[in-house]
Structure formats: C-alpha cells, structure tokens
C-alpha cells in the first residue's frame, strides 16, 4: 500500500533479507529492487478494513509499510515465514533485535483532508500534503517546515512535523539517547 494507492510489488524472502520491487511486464525482469535486512524487520498483523484485507505491517529502521496478501492463508504464511527467518537469523548470529528507531508507516493521503497536526489547513492543489518522516502523519507545509537527520532513513536531514522536531530537539538538548524514555 503506497501513500496514494495500492501498487503491486513482488517479494522475495531469503534467510537474511527481504527483497521487493516493481515488475516489468514485457521482459519479465524485476526493477527498482529494495532490500530490507531481516535482522531489523518486525512484523504486525493489520485488521481488515472494508476492501483492504489480509494486511500486515513490515517495520524496519529504513522503511516501513503495509502489505496486503491475496488471501488470509497467504497472509499467515508470509507472517510465519518472515518471523521464522528473523528468529533463525538472530539465533544463528547470537544477537537480539536492535531497539533502533523504526521508520513509521505513512498515513495514506486519502485518510487526511486537512493537516493532522494543526487541524486547520485544508489540502488542495496549492496546499500540498507532506509526511513527517518520524511519525508518518500527514501535515501541511507550515507544520512540517523543520528538518532533522534520521540516519537510519537517510544521510540528509528529512522533513519532520513540529511535534517530532520539538521532541527530537528536547531529547538532544537533555542528552537523552532513547527519544521515548525521555518523555
């Protein structure tokens, strides 16, 4: 599920990575491939809502999103296989899963007709939607005018909402390492 609409993706599960990407129909090749290291992946089931059924969240520091399987059986198979691969990989390496900040699952554009922060700004052709890279909320330009370096997601500072910017700034100034234990 992309921020605007569902898009088909092909997934390949290996014992240490999950590879996903677009399908090129003509030549049967897969392009724009993305790789998620399984040692960082967490998975959560998503409740069915309307015609969006058989969903689960893939959560990682680099990217998080919701995936919808064709059937409930396929959903359960993906969840169990991914969990098994993650557990086997962590056991093999003798490590526990990192408690690194995970990337948020973005709220779909269609779920917000106005800014989710100020609740005043209506979205239209001129007033565009933006996503906070820290919490995933859909916000207006004024409520997302700040940027912050989120090294798990990018080497450049990314757009964050004013609430997240304030939390990040306060955590940094107080010397707090884990943002959520500072609150």
Automatic annotation (TrEMBL):
GO terms for biological process: endosome organization; endosome to lysosome transport. Gene3D superfamilies: Pleckstrin-homology domain (PH domain)/Phosphotyrosine-binding domain (PTB), Zinc/RING finger domain, C3HC4 (zinc finger). SUPFAM superfamilies: FYVE/PHD zinc finger (SSF57903), PH domain-like (SSF50729). The keyword Cell membrane does not apply. Keywords: Metal-binding, Zinc, Zinc-finger. This is Pleckstrin homology domain-containing family F member 2. InterPro entries: PH-like_dom_sf (IPR011993), PH_domain (IPR001849), PH_domain-containing_F (IPR051765), SOS1_NGEF_PH (IPR055251), Znf_FYVE (IPR000306), Znf_FYVE-rel (IPR017455), Znf_FYVE_PHD (IPR011011), Znf_RING/FYVE/PHD (IPR013083). It comes from the Eukaryota. Pfam families: FYVE, SOS1_NGEF_PH. GO terms for cellular component: early endosome. GO terms for molecular function: phosphatidylinositol binding; zinc ion binding. Residues 1-87 form the PH domain. Residues 109-169 form the FYVE-type domain. Transmembrane segments: none annotated.
